[in-house]
């Protein structure tokens, strides 16, 4: 299976410019034969405080249409987070769009980042689950989520062999970014595919460093330069089983719980 992470600058509030950048990235991923491509967090609007609620109401339908039409045209799975309007507020929602142009899954960001005001402008999601595709079972995380190993473990216990991460992770936390992503891959023995943005927004500067990490924790593809690009890698889901047979990790839920809620 071939995957791509689209590393792009995001123009705050400029939805049309972001469409153009995203479209170029999706087209490049398709040209390379990717089956799945992921965009950065809040790729269509940025964290457009204090206008976020208005942007969510005015641009959500158009943005979701852009994603479904782009996925269908390119014949790939397309992932990305956009602001979703709801009666209880605005959610930062990761959508999974199938190659048929259908919304096949969604996840509302559960862990909001207080230091940059997310808790003041977003409602927090309360559910997270895997998405089943023709390629396999996958999970999705959004930026700050990678600091909470319980969520990655829960998705893994539900069958995910790849964790896709959409993020806006800024300087000076570059080392945290790579360490946390590699830790999630190693401890769960899964692939991790992470798309981070580049560019500046206010006082924040983003370093990119989008990457693909294998279940052994090896970074098999990444972008060191802080530039717009698409990174692509072939991932073998059978390698998950190989790594798990090499180092079997027998869990003890009788001691620390199961982490998988009853359905």
Topology diagram in text:
Elements: E1 2-7, H1 15-31, E2 36-38, H2 52-74, E3 77-86, E4 89-97, E5 103-108, H3 118-121, E6 131-132, E7 137-142, H4 149-157, E8 162-167, H5 174-188, E9 191-196, E10 198-201, E11 204-207, E12 211-213, E13 219-222, E14 229-234, H6 238-246, H7 253-256
Parallel strand pairs: 1-2, 2-3, 7-8, 8-9
Antiparallel strand pairs: 1-14, 3-4, 4-5, 6-7, 9-12, 10-11, 12-13
Description:
The protein is of the alpha/beta class. The chain has a single domain (2-249), classed as Carbon-nitrogen hydrolase (Nitrilase/N-carbamoyl-D-aminoacid amidohydrolase). Helix content is 31%, strand content 29%. It contains 7 helices and 14 strands. It has a 6-stranded mixed sheet with strand order 5-4-3-2-1-14, with helices on one face. Strand 1, helix 1 and strand 2 (36-38) form a beta-alpha-beta unit. Helix 1 runs parallel beside helix 2. The longest helix is centred in the N-terminal third of the chain and has 23 residues, at 52-74. The chain is globular.
Concise description?
It contains seven helices and 14 strands.
Number of distinct beta strands: 14
Number of helices: 7
Estimate the mean pLDDT confidence.
Answer: 96
- Which CATH top level class fits? Alpha Beta
* Spatial strand arrangement across the major sheet: 5-4-3-2-1-14
- Any idea what the CATH architecture is? 4-Layer Sandwich
Residue fraction in strands: 25-35%
- CATH homologous superfamily placement: Carbon-nitrogen hydrolase
Shape: globular
Helix content: 25-40%
Give the SSE string.
Answer: EHEHEEEHEEHEHEEEEEEHH
